[in-house]
């Protein structure tokens, strides 16, 4: 899918990219690289990255032509993918992403927004006061938008949706029958930095947010867009108030998540997952289908299908009860 929110400035010669990240000691034939993507979505003529063994199965099947990785992981990649050896895989990935998408780190306010009364949606959408709409926004039938909300450029909203008051939406594709309650922020850049003693390097966030049909998002929730992949909320999922969903998180269908739950980046939830209030999910985890997580739990490792867990660190519910009688 072509990204409608960030302009790709490529292609770039592979050796130019290597020189930019100070790896010019590794040279290749001057192939033009069209884009940078994650291991799952990369195609021939594109570059990706591979930094952890937990992604080995995906790495074995990547279609990327080049991959930034470490010496000990390089043998996992297919023969069709050339390894670029790095001792700072994520930093070098971020630097190359910034070359392709220089506007992804600024997150400037959308200067194209107009009052809804000056746009094509004046008669089409029920709305409150001081609603601002950016260029190329698409809004479906029978939608409502509350007071003081901003829908920025290129956002798409399906039919029968309601957007509350004081909501900001950008870099997002929203399907049908979605309800986003007051004070939510959807599609802002995620929290991605590489710490340094003198300055922190901001990781570009070029993914988007995709919200599927029949989703409800509670008041004051924040959903960050993806970095290289997308943040996705599956069909029929209900989020309570003040939930934070970080970049690249993927939530399955029919999930129910109570208030003040926080998700760190790149974790994946299956379908029919239930999570109690104030639970925390660490990054890069896989939570299976039909999982139940008790309120206040801290999840720091993968959870298989059909599990019930509670506590910090989260453990099997029966063991938790036994230990806390």
Structural notes for this entry:
- The chain is mainly beta.
- It has two domains: 12-104, 3-Layer(aba) Sandwich (Udp-n-acetylmuramoylalanyl-d-glutamate--2,6- Diaminopimelate Ligase, Chain: A, domain 1); 114-323, UDP N-Acetylglucosamine Acyltransferase, domain 1.
- The strands form seven sheets. Strands 8-11-14-17-22-25-28-31-34-36-37 form an eleven-stranded mixed β-sheet. It has a ten-stranded mixed β-sheet with strand order 7-9-12-15-18-23-26-29-32-35, with no helix packed on it. It has a six-stranded parallel β-sheet with strand order 10-13-16-21-24-27, with no helix packed on it.
- A hairpin with a 6-residue loop joins strand 19 and strand 20 (201-202).
- It is globular and about 60 Å long.
- The relative contact order is 0.08.
- The mean pLDDT is 93.
Q: Report the β-strand fraction as a percent range.
A: 25-35%
Low-confidence stretches are: none
- Find the count of extended strands (DSSP E, 2+ residues): 37
CATH topology of the largest domain: UDP N-Acetylglucosamine Acyltransferase, domain 1
- Largest beta sheet: what is the strand line-up? 8-11-14-17-22-25-28-31-34-36-37
**CATH architect. name of the largest domain:** 3 Solenoid
Overall geometry comes to: globular
Number of helices: 4
What structural category arises from helix and sheet content? mainly beta
CATH class bucket of the largest domain: Mainly Beta
Cα distance, first to last residue?
Answer: 52 Å
- Number of domain units: 2
Q: Provide mean pLDDT, rounded.
A: 93
């Amino acid at each position: 899918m072509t990204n409608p929110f960030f302009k790709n400035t490529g292609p770039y010669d592979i050796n130019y990219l290597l020189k930019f990240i100070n790896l010019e000691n590794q040279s290749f034939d001057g192939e033009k690289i069209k884009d940078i993507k994650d291991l799952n979505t990369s195609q021939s003529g594109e570059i990706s990255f591979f930094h952890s063994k937990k992604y080995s199965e995906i790495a074995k099947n990547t279609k990327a032509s080049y991959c930034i990785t470490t010496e000990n992981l390089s043998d996992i990649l297919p023969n069709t993918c050339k390894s670029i050896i790095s001792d700072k895989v994520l930093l070098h990935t971020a630097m190359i992403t910034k070359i392709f998408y220089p506007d992804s780190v600024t997150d400037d306010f959308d200067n194209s927004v107009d009052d809804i009364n000056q746009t094509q949606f004046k008669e089409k959408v029920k709305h409150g006061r001081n609603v601002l709409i950016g260029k190329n926004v698409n809004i479906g039938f029978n939608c409502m938008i509350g007071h003081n909300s901003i829908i920025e450029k290129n956002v798409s909203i399906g039919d029968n949706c309601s957007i509350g008051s004081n909501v900001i939406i950008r870099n997002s594709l929203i399907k049908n029958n979605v309800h986003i309650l007051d004070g939510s922020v959807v599609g802002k850049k995620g929290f991605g930095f590489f710490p340094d003693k003198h300055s922190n390097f901001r990781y570009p966030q070029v993914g988007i947010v995709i919200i599927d049909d029949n989703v409800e998002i509670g008041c004051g929730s924040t959903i960050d867009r993806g970095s290289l992949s997308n943040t996705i909320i599956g069909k029929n999922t209900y989020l309570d108030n003040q939930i934070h969903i970080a970049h690249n998180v993927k939530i399955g269908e029919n999930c129910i998540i109570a208030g003040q739950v926080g998700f760190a980046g790149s974790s994946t939830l299956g379908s029919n997952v239930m999570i109690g209030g104030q639970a925390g999910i660490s990054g890069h985890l896989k939570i299976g289908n039909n999982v139940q997580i008790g309120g206040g739990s801290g999840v720091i490792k993968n959870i298989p299908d059909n599990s019930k867990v509670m506590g910090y660190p989260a453990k099997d519910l029966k063991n938790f009860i036994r230990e806390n009688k």
